[in-house]
Amino acid sequence: MRFDEAYSGNVFIKSHPSYEESKVVIYGMPMDWTVSYRPGSRFGPARIREVSIGIEEYSPYLDKDLNDLKYFDAGDIPLPFGNAQKSLDLIEEYLDGLLADGKFPLGMGGEHLVTWPVIKAMYKKYPDLAIIHMDAHTDLRENYEGEPLSHSTPIRKAADLIGPQNIYSFGIRSGMKEEFEWAKEVGMHLFKFDVHKPLQEILPTLAGRPVYVTIDIDVLDPAHAPGTGTVDAGGITSRELLASIHEIAHSDVRVVGADLVEVAPIYDHSEQTVNTASKLLREMLLGFVK
Amino acid sequence: MRFDEAYSGNVFIKSHPSYEESKVVIYGMPMDWTVSYRPGSRFGPARIREVSIGIEEYSPYLDKDLNDLKYFDAGDIPLPFGNAQKSLDLIEEYLDGLLADGKFPLGMGGEHLVTWPVIKAMYKKYPDLAIIHMDAHTDLRENYEGEPLSHSTPIRKAADLIGPQNIYSFGIRSGMKEEFEWAKEVGMHLFKFDVHKPLQEILPTLAGRPVYVTIDIDVLDPAHAPGTGTVDAGGITSRELLASIHEIAHSDVRVVGADLVEVAPIYDHSEQTVNTASKLLREMLLGFVK
Amino acid sequence: MRFDEAYSGNVFIKSHPSYEESKVVIYGMPMDWTVSYRPGSRFGPARIREVSIGIEEYSPYLDKDLNDLKYFDAGDIPLPFGNAQKSLDLIEEYLDGLLADGKFPLGMGGEHLVTWPVIKAMYKKYPDLAIIHMDAHTDLRENYEGEPLSHSTPIRKAADLIGPQNIYSFGIRSGMKEEFEWAKEVGMHLFKFDVHKPLQEILPTLAGRPVYVTIDIDVLDPAHAPGTGTVDAGGITSRELLASIHEIAHSDVRVVGADLVEVAPIYDHSEQTVNTASKLLREMLLGFVK
Amino acid sequence: MRFDEAYSGNVFIKSHPSYEESKVVIYGMPMDWTVSYRPGSRFGPARIREVSIGIEEYSPYLDKDLNDLKYFDAGDIPLPFGNAQKSLDLIEEYLDGLLADGKFPLGMGGEHLVTWPVIKAMYKKYPDLAIIHMDAHTDLRENYEGEPLSHSTPIRKAADLIGPQNIYSFGIRSGMKEEFEWAKEVGMHLFKFDVHKPLQEILPTLAGRPVYVTIDIDVLDPAHAPGTGTVDAGGITSRELLASIHEIAHSDVRVVGADLVEVAPIYDHSEQTVNTASKLLREMLLGFVK
Amino acid sequence: MRFDEAYSGNVFIKSHPSYEESKVVIYGMPMDWTVSYRPGSRFGPARIREVSIGIEEYSPYLDKDLNDLKYFDAGDIPLPFGNAQKSLDLIEEYLDGLLADGKFPLGMGGEHLVTWPVIKAMYKKYPDLAIIHMDAHTDLRENYEGEPLSHSTPIRKAADLIGPQNIYSFGIRSGMKEEFEWAKEVGMHLFKFDVHKPLQEILPTLAGRPVYVTIDIDVLDPAHAPGTGTVDAGGITSRELLASIHEIAHSDVRVVGADLVEVAPIYDHSEQTVNTASKLLREMLLGFVK
Amino acid sequence: MRFDEAYSGNVFIKSHPSYEESKVVIYGMPMDWTVSYRPGSRFGPARIREVSIGIEEYSPYLDKDLNDLKYFDAGDIPLPFGNAQKSLDLIEEYLDGLLADGKFPLGMGGEHLVTWPVIKAMYKKYPDLAIIHMDAHTDLRENYEGEPLSHSTPIRKAADLIGPQNIYSFGIRSGMKEEFEWAKEVGMHLFKFDVHKPLQEILPTLAGRPVYVTIDIDVLDPAHAPGTGTVDAGGITSRELLASIHEIAHSDVRVVGADLVEVAPIYDHSEQTVNTASKLLREMLLGFVK
After folding, report:
1. Which domain holds residue B193?
2. Which whole number is the average pLDDT over C123-137?
3. Which residue does chain E place closest to A222, by CA atoms?
4. Long-range contacts of E96-104 (CB under 8 A, 24+ apart)
5. Rounded mean pLDDT of chain C?
6. E222–A276: do the CB atoms touch at under 8 Å?
7. Which CATH number covers residue E53?
8. N or C: which end of chain D has fewer CB within 10 A?
9. How many structural domains compose chain B?
10. What is the least distance, in Å, from the CA of F124 to any CA of chain D?
11. To the nearest whole number, what is the mean pLDDT of chain F?
């Protein structure tokens, strides 16, 4: 590097300089204002980018290399602090743009509510969309203490929009009784505790379908992801999550977009969670984009 | 304690059981959703209460004892996550109630924006209200990136309401050029860097006036208060802040309410800031209430 | 909440206000003065209560809800710092009272030695008592460097009182050679390393027996419970511990009391351990009380 | 170093190998079982020794060098966990031995109660002993919640033994009303808030007297010593404490022993407090021993 | 302990005082200057020794006791900061000495590059040496950004020296594509992701061979070892690593030396990793030395 | 921001996009391999940049604004891990380039040794160069345990090059006896403990002289800068350091370059030190560049 070159740090490792030439766009959604417990996921995307410099570009799992894929890290979408509705509108508009340009969207949260406007945009483009959702929590509330815009509601909103029978939730280990009952009644596919095994059974039924994959990092056990807002014991290992991503990669579903949310660096005292997130993103890039 | 008595932990030490008999009401305002930097002050009031069990009830500074004052810790006002306007409305309504009952309000933040509805309520009762404001930041913005409800705006709103000449800011060491210029133009009293000395000069001019005291913990140097959202070098020591509180206590102003805001426990790795906040509240109780 | 209502924070979530109407009493035993390594478990009960506000009231494992059970959180038993004998006497007296009133005792430590006086009280009421003990450590020493009152001795004392053949230890991975040999000689049931599997074999043999369950949080691997005094690699996962609790819940043993000890918040940098403890208590409440 | 030499790590830097030839003996008193708040000072001496390798041997304040003084670090006195009375007896016996051999005792705590048996031993040898006590707290209680052996009582016990008029306390900023009143009544010399200035006035009156200096690290502001059990805002800076030690060093009092207590590494997240303690010990060695 | 005995703290628990009589020599290699990511492993050996006081001397896995083996902890080899070549030369020379005296070398890193000079020394004595290597990373680079002395290169150097067919790597989950390809081409034995299972298959083929075992602590998942320079999700559990050590212990290979490297205490917020390392060393001592 | 614009995060706030048009060049020197104590300052520049987004652009101290100055943040100079000599050569070469282009160099360390090649380059251009050096440590060793390239030697090297009478050190509170003696003998200007006061006296004597200002963050007390390799009690406050920078800004010396070194984020648990460093850089930019 010559010292008079422009410095452009803090993008995900190997980000391609050209938006036009890139197949994938990585973007951050730094919003955490509706969380009921520990805030801080607004800083997730920035820290994931920073530590991405430490991961290898090659995946020994998939035998693929980041150098063989063109993706553009567009940075964080600027969102107004404390204004949930406006933030969600901005995200939807942003996604509309990306999809109009034919890009594969790979988002980083932020709280899980950011997935809601993304799904709205995806659904406009893919009317037969299915959602694969990995999470510790059902996220099926209609509102949280009266507030419809809450990090506990995105999957409910998605179910209402695209139909509950098109939602596949995995690894769920926490929620209100009413949420579990509602899921059952309306025919949502909700798998408790495990991810990899039920996923193996489900994937063949989704062959050929356009699928959006949303991963809440807290699907991992707190041992594997302490850096998140709500830690809940009894989760899966990072090995199982990696295997689940690879299972999707090797399946016949057509992944059309994905996100990884709820990484909160302030609780991540050894940078374990942000490094894990960074590795997961590499596997999602190499495994989901074809 | 007999084991069949109701347990009522987590109130400020020596809180009196009766609201009716108490002169002062302590309450928390656990809101942090408009902050532009590090969130987390929503947990301030709860942690301050917990560690209050470790402070002595006697002040060797004021030679007074908490046992000689009746105050009631009412807990936290329940506020809707991520909804700023509604939160502020609830706080104002709450204060209206307290003031109607003749109570001295002693609030704990939360972000500094919570002071805005409190001042609105105070001003309805005390039309000649003056404000003593200790802070690292001017908090004089009209809006923050377009958003009028922001933690950078409360003092500006207060100035617009009660008149800038009734605002006395101390210890300010950070702000936009425009904020400092505006303060000068409109005749606000803004003292940079120091608190105790300018306060000594100002207090006699406020003798007899009803005064609301709002203290942002970040007026302290980060060495003395690491547990806050925005750390800014060059602040005052805890000794100077204690001396400033005592200066007010010994003056002829009539303190009619006060708050201490922006304590964020997650960044307070040795519990230093919450302990300091707890001690400051003791001195505010013993020094401000007559 | 009206602001003039008494505030009663810091009890375990959904604690019932009436001792008389409650079936279960939750209580803390904040003692840590005989530990040979890292102290700090005295703060365990208080922190577990605080974070309990973050757990769901419903268990998707047991399909039960905290709202369907009446339990009363009586707070911490006040214990004299540094005086082990007096502390243990106070705990025993306290338990005598609870048992006389027909309550199900659910205790939170504190160091493991607090279980000793509880067992003394239980044994007076249930002469055919058996103990299920999950722990990383044997806790079978007669004394620790000459001191008979030590956190390394409670299970030995229990064995001497109720007979070693009535003690069932699981998950043990640390102890002196002499402790393991003693256990073998006297016919204690000591299972190394694993919990769930040997428990499945043992439970049928205990059908109908009154059983006290004592869980040292360090039976978990440090990955799952860093917040404890003695971290020891090679432990079980939180999934296995949850499954073990559920195994007992679905068995025919008659659980008559239980505790969870050695949670030390100061080493729990992401609040992972206290949250896990909080969830375990929910499962113990819903699974053990019938 | 040849690899077959015995390794003797973890002594205070430049500790002399021979007890016999040494003028001073450094020793740890790793006890913290009577503290009412945060335990952990039992690990203070060990950590202070470890980081001592990082300090320079030369004091630019005193223009003296550790290489010119012979002192022997004897390690920690082995104390029985949780047994206060026995621990204190062991310390007194240990000190009797040191004083019989004509050594200058330089102790490291441990909680402040460890100073009590040291003073008992010192007083047997020096009947005209005076005590210089630097602390945030009065430590003048007769008992703590009924317990006479508590970290809140050592100076009271000392006053009762050697006469309150021989106790000089500095920097005190916390205590019960009764403690301050008692000190006044019985003629103890108690100086609030400041150390250096009142010390300058007092030292000439103590010229020639044998003096024991006991420093509780919490006399420092939490900004300067977060790593201690009880943090209390409004303390002195490390510069003032260093100046105070040097003031004594340059005075005509005859220091006959000293200690530094209440360093608790677990709360000392940047190792600031243990490093400061290490430097203070260097200055005490070079300044107090003549 | 009498107070006039020499204190020799900070050696691994139960270290024998005599080098001559000891079969094994434990030594630290506190070097971390070529790491490309987070430095700090230079402090690994010292912290592992300190916490070793907390482990039991008996292994319930192997039914052996440290008291039945003589080993001498020689402390850290003094290495010049920032000078990689000189440091490596010093380590090789040190090992030559140990091996000439017939000692079993058990080293603690430090970064993984320290293993390179150890292997050079071992190979001089054992020309038919095989290496068992457990690690997250291939460590097979020829150089790192042009620098041949890097923590990414030791296994490559070893392969070039003793022949790639004599290197057995386990648990590998990270590396450049070229490294994996090279390993394949030259006939190195590289097993991805798992350790225990492939080890079971390989060990019989190594029966009777002299084997050096080098364990990079990051073969463990970050959940089990956050305190290391490079955390990488998807690793093995501490149970699997313990089982792997025991598998070797029970096999017919002839372990002639071993090391455990890359423990970095600064990232190890609950002392979990150093405690785990301490336990692993106990198992290596009891399992590898015959 | 449109999503297809190139993202260029992680530069110091308000960095100008054009090297050519900029008067000042900011650059990082991420080297920490010769430090004898705690490494980690290699990450200083990156973290300072990141948090710079949180500082105001306006200085109320100097009444100047970053928007009125053009500076270009060139990122970090890529340096080879563990190779000190090569790193220093690269830095010197880099500076030669900057100075040839007429830029004002503003560097961020890294360890203090990085200042040595900068001074070599500066001296080639300014033969009458004087150095203002603020530091806790003398940094005057000829070598450190035999190694001439050490973080303890840069000022000695500078003195040998430009003449000791041209070196002005302030705030020094640590060093070997020989270093202080050498400074005295050769006529270096070394001021112990204080910075602002002696600086006020010295500055007039340097009027018109080209001056390089090098600030080691550890000149601050650990209370004000815990995030550094070597914490040493008795330092100055951040207020005194700010005042010292302003004193230089208002003087008649001609600052021709400056640096701020030894910021180590890993020990900076509340991000206090990196935020302070960011503010100091703003004041250095606005105060030193004319």
Report:
1. 24-288
2. 98
3. E223
4. E96/E121, E96/E124, E97/D3, E98/D3, E98/E25, E98/E27, E99/E124, E99/E125, E101/D4, E103/E22, E103/E23, E103/E24, E103/E25, E104/E23, E104/E24, E104/E25, E104/E256, E104/E257, E104/E288, E104/E289
5. 94
6. yes
7. 3.40.800.10
8. C
9. 1
10. 34
11. 94
